[in-house]
Structures are given as C-alpha cells and as structure tokens.
Amino acid sequence: MTAKLKITGGNPLCGSVAISGAKNAALPALFACLLTEEPCELGNLPQLRDIKSALAVLSAMGAEHSDANGKTVVNAARLRTTVAPYQLVKTMRASVLALGPLLARAGEATVSLPGGCVIGARPVDMHIAGFEKMGAEIQIQNGNIVARAKRLRGANIKLPQPTVTGSENLMMAAALAEGITVLENAAREPEITDLAVFLNAMGADISGAGESTITIRGVDRLHSAKHFVMPDRIEAGTYLCAAAACGGDVFLENADLSHLSALAEKLRECGAEVLNCNDSGDDGDDGDDGDGDGDGNSENKKRGARITMHNRPRAVDAVTAPYPGYPTDLQAQWMAVNCVAEGCATITETVFENRFMHAPELARMGADIELRGNAARVRGVASLSGAPVMATDIRASAALVVAALAARGTSEIDRIYHLERGYATMEKKLRALGANAERK
Ligand code: EPU
Asked: Does the beta carbon of 92 sit less than 6 angstroms from any atom of ligand 1?
C-alpha cells in the first residue's frame, strides 16, 4: 500500500511557513559538481526524493558526498564511471543533466535515454543536437545516449524552442569547451541564472543567463565553490494558490515574488492581496504590517511573500508559457483555484501535451471541467466535496492538495510519492497553516 495524504478541508489558511530550496535549481547544481575534481559545497538543498535520486546517480559515478550543518559537500575528485544506468535514470529524468558535465570533463558519457513521462513525450533531441554542434559524436545504443568528444568546441547554438534542462546541460558543457558558445533562444527561468551564478563561482565565464542569449567563454578547468540554492518558486506558488482557494493570511518565508510575477498578477486579478516583503522593510512599507493592528511588527519584516485573501476567488484565465510567462508547473494548481472560483475560466497548456491528468481527479471532487485539446474550461462551483483521489505527477498531486484544502469534508490523496519528489514535509507545512493534514 502506498502512502496517502488525508486532508479535511474547508478552513482558511493562516500562519507562516518556510519555503525550501528549489528542486529544479538544486538538481543542475548537483550535476555541475561533476565538472571539477575539487569539492563543492551546496546550501539550501531541499529534502526531497529527487535530490536523493540525483545523489545516487553521482555516487554511482564515484562522486562522494557528505552533509554537515545543513550543507552538502560533493567531491567528484575521481570518477569511477561515466555511465548513468537505466535503473537510476528511470527514477528521475533530470539525470540527463549528467551528460553535459561528463562529456566536457571526461570526454565521454553514457546516459540512459529518458523515456516519455505522464505529462508528455519529453524528448531530449535539442540537448543532443547542441552537443553535436559542439563536436560530440552521439549514438543511441540499447536505449542509451552514448556521447564522445576529445574536447568540446564552442559553437553558435540556436534552440528551436526554449528548453530548461537543455539550456542547463549545454551551458555546463560549454563552460569547459574550447572557445565561445552562444546559446540563442535559451530558456530564461530563474533556475538557469542560479546555475550560472554557481558555475561562475567555480571559475566559468558566463554572461546573459536569464536572457534569451547566453554567452559562455570556455575555460580549461573549474574549481571548488560554494553555492546557496535559490528558494523554490513553484513550492511558493503552490502555497499561494492554496491560500487563494481557501482564503486566509499566509506568510511564505524566503519566497521571492519577483520570480512569480505571472502568478502574482493572476492572484491580484482573482481578488487576493499579494506582497513581496524583504528584510529591511525598504519596500516602501510605512511600518504597518497590514494586519489591522498597526503594530508594524509582523513577518513582513522577514524576507518572503505574503498573501491575504478574504473572499471567494474570481475566475481568471491562464495560458502557460516559458518564463517569464505563466509557469506550466503551476497550471494544475491554478486550475484547482478556478474550480472553486466565481465564474468561468479557460486554462491553456502550451508547454507539455498531456498535462491535464489532474482534471478527471478534480472532477471526482465535484469540479466542473471540460477538456478540449490543450484547453480546459473550468466553471467554478460553490464548493468541492472531499473524495479519494489519485496523484499522477508532482504538480497534479499539488493541485489535488489545493482542491482538498478548499473542499468540504475529507479527501485521501493516494500515491503521494509523486508529491514527495517535489514538496518537502508538505503535511507539516500545511499543519503550520492550520490545515487538517496527515500522512497515512
Ligand atoms: N523539448 C523538446 N526537445 C528537447 C527538450 C525539450 O522537444 O530536447 C520540449 C519538451 O517536450 C517540452 C518543451 O520542450 O514540450 C519544454 O521542455 P523543457 O526542456 O523546458 O522541460 P525540462 O527541462 O525537461 C524542466 C523542469 C520541469 C518543468 C519544465 C518547464 C527540471 C528538472 N524540470 O523540465 O519541471 O515543467 O522545465 O518549465 O528543471 C516539475 O518540477 O514538476 C517539472 C516537470
């Protein structure tokens, strides 16, 4: 029997939770440690299954790691093998991020070809074409990507569409290539910038990360560095959606709303008040914390984001797009908000071809959703009712949590191992917000 999350919903969420380090920034940072023989120290790694899976891939290659004082030191002084086998890659497709660093450092890499997944086919053809442009010879043999290159050469690579892990893989490889690589139409997600900051601390020469054109001047070697992983904008966005659906007053410590502008706009449109708060209070804040008691003494003084929501949300459309557009990783959660909203909204998914698996599960809770191709028409209902439901991927599970928190009665979300790939101690964080949530 798999673990379940039992939630009895219907109450507003109030209180404060700390947002963890970003899964999708921590993963490339861990693989970047393969680029140097010197130890690297990573802080703010989230406690997640995917991080354990990445560390297992690194260990299989001979990289050692140790944890102390909340930091993880990865030492890839000696590589035992440059093969990432299927047994490990199948547990986490981001293992394909081993390809760039291994190819650049060791001149060869064999990484099992990640298969499709529940949200779409998810090919890695753009990663492969980019490495070939840099002079690598690549073959697909027995389900593996087998790559070889004496030394990668800098190249001009124009990506047909922005790919997040593709941009990261090529950026890591180019860091040790001979000459200059220009990556055009690169993904602009904040996680790409976070990786570039780490690589530059290791001695790389990268400019333009966070923009569509990234320039990487290859260097001969990279060295030891420390890096503090950015906060998880998708985890923060999920709690913001939960508060919008349930109402309440929630402070998300460490969250950076500047990474979530597209969601913040939607939240304001749906009737929530959303604030980016920082340490010094120099955000124009007059000292009143806005909680009505005029004491100016709240969590607004800490770094983070705050949402207050007093009414039923209004329905608001969303179309997913690469950053800075509305994130596909928050599409399911926004659909859950709209399930209990006043009015009717259309949610359009343009990044992945099959990312509506949560819709039929939400319907089991009483949601009114009509799917038409890549669009979902959601008619808000006055209330959802708790039900047993099944998680299918990380973000679909998160949408079920948001819906269960807003629903009347008790829901049991099955297969929460999906949730645990991306959300650290979710039931504890929910309980800190006054929710009735329990892992079974
Ligand atoms: N694509 C190709 N060919 C490629 C690469 C991508 O056709 O070689 C297509 C994909 O099929 C998709 C689009 O390009 O239609 C964008 O995919 P992208 O490569 O950007 O996705 P990814 O790098 O595999 C990362 C995140 C995902 C997130 C997407 C989009 C990590 C480890 N994963 O995936 O996160 O949804 O970017 O923002 O960073 C999650 O955390 O739940 C998750 C799925």
From this structure: no
